[in-house]
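Below is how a single chain appears once it has passed through the pipeline. First comes the sequence as given, then the structure the pipeline wrote out for it. We keep one example in the README because the format questions we get most often are answered faster by looking than by reading.
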Amino acid sequence: MDAGAGLGPRLRGGRGVRDAGGANHLPGPQHDAGDPPLRLHGGRPGRHRERAGSRGRRRRGRHPDGPGRHLHPRRPGPQARVRIDRHRRRAAGAAGGPLRTSDGEARVRRLSRTRPELIGLAVVAAVVLIGLPTVTNQFFTFEFAKVAIFVTALIGLNLLTGYSGQISLGNGAFMAVGGYTTAILVQRTGIPYWTTIPVAGILAGVVGFLIGIPALRLTGVYLALATFALALSIPPVLNHFDTFTGGHGGIVMAPAMPPLGLDLSQEQWLYYLCSGIALVLFLFAWGIVRSRTGRAFMAIRDSETAAVASGISLAYYKTLAFGLSAAYAGVAGSLLAIATSYVNPDTFGLSLSLALLVGVVIGGLGLDFGAVLGSLLVVWLPYYAEKASGLQIGSLSFGGKPDIFYGALLILILFFAPHGAAGLVQRGWRWYLLRRTAARSPLPEPVVER
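Resulting structure:
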């Protein structure tokens, strides 16, 4: 609305006339701005239609907002001074603690609470590991050496299948590469058998890395079938190149005796050798899983699309997982050749690859101690299945067929422990910690209402 409407030339009686629009006539807004006293509220201070004496004011004790809201104005007179806010002489005390505890801090607290139990378990495991050969006979000592060999192989398969999510039925073929590498080097060059172990692991790792490159296009069941074909093709290949491999007859090596004149039997030395290597490789894999590489493996296992979106190279980490798994299998194959002093194509047949897959599944995929428990089951279940196959429970009889009893045991284990033996142990450990924490924590005091 034009503020100048009705404010043009006026007659003596105060009656307004129409604005003639002379030469000095300006548009409405400019005309209004040219007369400062002109206001909609009649020139009074305050807002339009605001009653006199009702100007806006703030609550007592508050200061206006703005950069200088903490400053007091200087007062005139001889007693003038600047009043400033009174500040604390020292910083305020620290907070009593965070409102919510982060996952990392909670994990550290749980670890600090369980540290005595973990140290105790580690001490007991070390005592059992060292003293086991001194209280068992030669047969059981040798069988526990085989357990250590399978631990090494299953750690590698767990890295590939349990952590990176790639199913492999061909790790028996990588064990064959390691075993024949040791046998050929010892027979043809005469070098000490223990020096061939790293060579066998490196060569098998290179073969696994090369096989992992074409396997990048395969996932799931198709990858399992491709590695299954690899396991099937190894025995015929070894039989074909009989000049190096010995064909069906295989290669016979000298027994592995303790070096440096150690006062140990052959079985005891093999046990300590295989167990020591398995322990070192277990710690190495434990570090890999908790590193950036291990996190990349698990990201690929959970979702390849999300892993690529996060900047993870599928080609690099998938082939790396194949190479690491094959290297572990090569070391295990070398140890198996040293322990048995004999290799032939049937030693590394399809049954070995299937036994490795069964071991990593019933032990616990993606769990640290799954390889250890899976190796114990793979080695000792067939032994006790053969012992129990002659038993007859009522009308139930296995007719001296251990394979039936072995299969029944595997079904029962997977039924009661779907996440493997390590998953069952992990659940029992958590239950124990919860019970212990509940027993130690004080009960809350009752609230009495007045």
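The chain has a mean pLDDT of 79.

See the next section for the split statistics.
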